[in-house]
């Protein structure tokens, strides 16, 4: 008997690699469009197509603005937005709580406290110059790890933490971090105060490749570390006992999520300050667009978070020209009404 021909997908030599999901391709295209707009629009218009196709028509000023100012800023905004949104999606899956978000439950405040402590006491530590670009992200990650671990210990002490418990613990953590930030602000000198202002509302202003590359590398590593946990996060939604029966090492998964979230949030806070509500709003939008499976939600949140951060940064530097608004104000203006709507929806 002659064998039937195999389907064409089985004949494809790269069949082990899954085909990209159309929804993710659309979100990636939207992110690229936002990035192209971000590097093009501003006080000095930069024709991106001319830069790619015919550089002879681009002035030296436009080339300098593109390579030294716009491109690092847009790339950093995209990386930070992706890291915060991915961290929010992972926290919501870890706590099984739709209101978990890095700023709301205090993770961003803990990271900012660690970063500000490094700003104030960094000179006294006399670190080698080769380590100075990494000292700020390291301190922020340490603060984020401490807060995330403490939060999970509180939330899971007597089973799954409810919405009220999580919010109350987050309020307490934010208050304690505020006390520490206020103390460091009081101890800081005039030069350090200017740096501390950077953290109060979040900004991508003054981004340079030298200072941004370490944080970008850490966020990229955290993203690669968190994305493979998608299937186990789906099983964790059934409960810790059921997930363990299905073969998930729950303790190892918790450690992976806590560490990955802390690295992503800490690195983002170290270079951009506290940018709130990205981790709350974006995962819910991703679920509304394509479902609740984390294999889709995690990469979709990263793409949407990058798009939102790039768009918010574009608005921050173009809405009140020649001044520049803090990015945190724009994301909070978007996220606060969404948070209220989400709370009312959960109550109903």
TrEMBL record:
Q: Which GO terms describe its cellular component?
A: plasma membrane
Q: Name one Pfam family in it.
A: FecCD
- Please give the superkingdom of this protein's source: Bacteria
SUPFAM superfamilies named among the record's database cross-references = ABC transporter involved in vitamin B12 uptake, BtuC
Does the keyword field hold DNA-binding? no
Recorded coiled-coil stretches? none
Give the transmembrane region(s): 74-95, 104-122, 134-154, 166-188, 208-227, 257-282, 325-344
Topology in the lipid bilayer: Multi-pass membrane protein
Q: Name one GO molecular function term.
A: transmembrane transporter activity
Q: Where in the cell is it found?
A: Cell membrane
Which GO biological-process labels does this protein carry? siderophore-iron import into cell
Keyword set, alphabetical order:
Cell membrane, Membrane, Transmembrane, Transmembrane helix, Transport
Report the InterPro entries cross-referenced here.
ABC_BtuC-like (IPR037294), ABC_transptr_permease_BtuC (IPR000522)
| Protein family | Belongs to the binding-protein-dependent transport system permease family. FecCD subfamily.
Please identify the protein, giving its name as recorded.
Answer: Vitamin B12 ABC transporter, permease component BtuC
